[in-house]
Design a protein that fits this description.
By secondary structure, this protein is mostly helical. It has seven helices and no strands. Bound molecules: protoporphyrin IX containing FE (HEM). Keywords: Heme, Iron, Metal-binding, Transport.
Length: 143
C-alpha cells in the first residue's frame, strides 16, 4: 500500500512535531559548532541555516510543507554545490545527526528507518569529485 494511504501517523507526528524537530536541529548544530570537519564548511552565522534545516525536516518527515512554502523545491544537491562535500564530511554529518536524534530522545526504533533514508541522501550530497558550479543558488522567496 502507498504509505500515504496507510493509517500510521507520519514520523513527524510520531516523534513529537515541531518541538522535537527543533530539539534535534539544535543538538546537531551544537555539534557542528565545534566540529573540525564540518565547522569550516558552514558560514560564520549558523542561525539562518538552522531554521532552514528545521523547516526542511518538518516536511521531509511528513509534517507541514514549511520549507517549500518559502523556497520552492529544495534542490538539495544543487544547494550544496558551494560546499565541497567528500565521504568524510558526509560520514561526519550522519554521525553528528545520529547523536543529535539520540540526545533529543527519539527512540532507536523510530530513528532507524529514518536514518536509512538520511544515509542515502547524505551520500547523494557528496560532490567533491564532481565538476559542478560552486556559486550559491540563492534564495527565491515565494512569499
Ligand atoms: C552530507 C553532508 C552534508 C554537509 C557537509 C552539509 C552541509 C551544509 C551546509 C554547509 C549548508 C549551508 C548552511 C547555511 O547556509 O547556513 C547546508 C544547508 C542545508 N542542508 Fe546540508 N549538508 C549535508 C547533508 C545534508 C542532508 C543529507 C540534508 C537533508 C536531509 C541536508 C539539508 C540541508 C538543508 C535543508 C539546508 C538549507 C538549504 C538552503 O539554503 O535552503 N544537508 N548543508
Amino acid at each position: 500500500m502507498n504509505p500515504a494511504e496507510s493509517a500510521a501517523p507520519a514520523p513527524y507526528h510520531q516523534l513529537g512535531g515541531y518541538q522535537a524537530v527543533w530539539r534535534i536541529v539544535e543538538a546537531f548544530y551544537r555539534r557542528v559548532e565545534t566540529d573540525d570537519i564540518l565547522r569550516p564548511l558552514y558560514p560564520e552565522n549558523l542561525e539562518p541555516g538552522k531554521q532552514k534545516l528545521a523547516w526542511f525536516f518538518e516536511q521531509w518527515l511528513g509534517g507541514p510543507t514549511s520549507y517549500s512554502d518559502r523556497y520552492g523545491h529544495p534542490r538539495l544537491r544543487r544547494r550544496h554545490f558551494p560546499f565541497v562535500i567528500d565521504e568524510r564530511a558526509a560520514g561526519r554529518w550522519l554521525r553528528l545527526m545520529r547523536e543529535a536524534w539520540t540526545e533529543a530522545g527519539v527512540p532507536r526504533e523510530l530513528q532507524d528507518p529514518i536514518f536509512e533514508r538520511l544515509a542515502v541522501l547524505a551520500r547523494h550530497m557528496i560532490n567533491a569529485h564532481d565538476d559542478v558550479p560552486r556559486e550559491p543558488l540563492g534564495d527565491v522567496y515565494l512569499d
